Please model this.
Amino acid sequence: MTAYLLNLATLAAIFGILAVSLNVLVGYAGIFSTAHAVFFGLGAYAGAQVALLVTPDVALASLAATALAGAASLCLALPALRVRGEYFVAASLGLQMLATTVFTQAQSLTGGIGGLVGIPPPTLLGLDVSSPWAFFAVCLAALGACLIGIRLLMRGSFGRSLMALRDSESAARAFGKDVARLKTLAVAVGCALAGLAGALFAFQEAFVNVESFTLEQSILLLAMVIIGGVGTLAGPLVGAVLLLLLPAGLSFLPFIPPTDIGAVQQLIYGLAMTLLMIFRPAGLAGRPVGQR
Amino acid sequence: MIRRRTLLMGSAASAALLLACRRAFAEEAASYIIGTLFPMAGPNAEYGAIFTAGAQMALAHLAEDKMLRKPVELRAEDSQATPQGGATGMTKLANVDHAVYTLIGFTGVSKAAAPIGQRNKVVMVNGGGVGPDLSGLAPLFWNVIPLIDKEIAAIIPWLKAQGAKRVAVLYVDDPLGNAALKQISDALPANGGTLAGSFSIAPTAQQFGPIAAKIRESTPDAVYFASYGAQQAQIIKQLRDNGVSQQLVTYSAATIPSVRDLAEAEGLVFTAQLSDWTLQDPVTQRFVKDWREKYHSDPTTYHQNYYNAVRLFGLLAQGLEKAGKPVDGEALRAELLRVRKFALVGGEGTFDDNCNISIPIQINRMKGGKAERIG
Model:
């Protein structure tokens, strides 16, 4: 039981990083991206390749993943500078579809649908951190660092400028804010952190393929942020934990016949999400728009 | 801020979860647990239902025969056909349900689950995926279905005998499809044939009209397609709708109801392991008789495979119990490699050093919604 709970807790920490990173875009900068799984995937592939070809050091792999995802964030920043709202959603959707195809076709880098197998157990500065407890501690530390970093950023002038931009882009521009620079930086920070989560995910699963970085994953991440509460530090974390643990908890229901388990779980899962949004429209840990 | 009511609801849910866990632990010691890790929702749920039905019939037979000293219980996990779902599901089956033996399907799920199963000494048995990369995935990862290379080796001589010299190949761009293309490309010249053209499709593709036009242009005598899941029915329908009238040929993935019930699939030729329901051996006869009584239709090869997978557990565990050995992953593998040959549905199955089954292949033609053996 401990191993299972640790696995879930480690996944919750990794998806917590992903959700808080997406919250930088959605919650603080008002950029509704449906392509966050792309940067998660880039990080996972970069981390896996570093582990397979260079060293299984989780710090180095994470650094490479963060750098690659951060650099690739320009692909998302460029449309974000030109369009917003529903037009940007469409543009990010296109990026997600493009990336899924590239992940599938670039077989020498990603292994295609077959994926990358045999990712070695992680080490950290020469120490073995492959045991579930040790790797959970690594992921938890990474999550803690991300939360502290985001809190510091958002409490400073960068964060305040971002939120001004989110609430009214033209007003922010009128007050002399460099909108292009702010948006590019916000996207770079969010995507780089998604890359970090990707590298940790690659070590945790020891196998990565394109099926983990699809549009469904991007939508799930968006749901984590919205259900938890956008524009708050704790909200995305609550959303990530809830959306990961709810299906896990449902799998313990003893009265569901084996052939119906998937359908019943999906029904309860979908119903719970709908009810949450009806009764807590600002998210579980969210604040109404005027109080953010 | 999180409200007090939300916290109370969360606490209640946690308490219910803990109670369910305690119940799971209490049951575990008294029985052998077989886990299933199939997609049970979404577009691939059809496979999950088929796989589970085969396993459930074998469980009923194990219980009727009182083959084992302890009862065998089935615990289902929804893999969602994703690697993450597979890894999480396998972790739960191994660490919470304490399954000693699991049934698995789908390549991505298998690859993600294999290291976890191996680490926890849980046997994983695939009866659905036929990709060549499923061979030797881990010492405790076994295949009770012949992999695709054996199916293609059987169909090429048949195509030659039918005078189909030019063969077009439509394949999913993944390890399975690429392996099928390579083997067909290599085997055709040796059998006096040529590759009329090869056309790759993405696993998520749903529109095949433009590819059908290209296939028509390549003027093949037959079209071989390597795909799986709901996509197969779309390929067949759209090729026929777009004027591809040549013989369509595929492999065992076509033995699912969505293909069988498709009017355009009439005449489809496909390979599968030997599924001769008229065989007179008692294992096959009992399986077929009980299946027809319960479901009023003939079983498919997937039903057969997962029945065989569970029956194999019964035979191995029975051997271990008689020898006074523990029934765990390592002991089950040692027993499999010691015995090697087992009386299964469809005849005798023989396992090689990689724990892959060898079983004769037959060629079928779809006729009136049923598979008719033609070779």
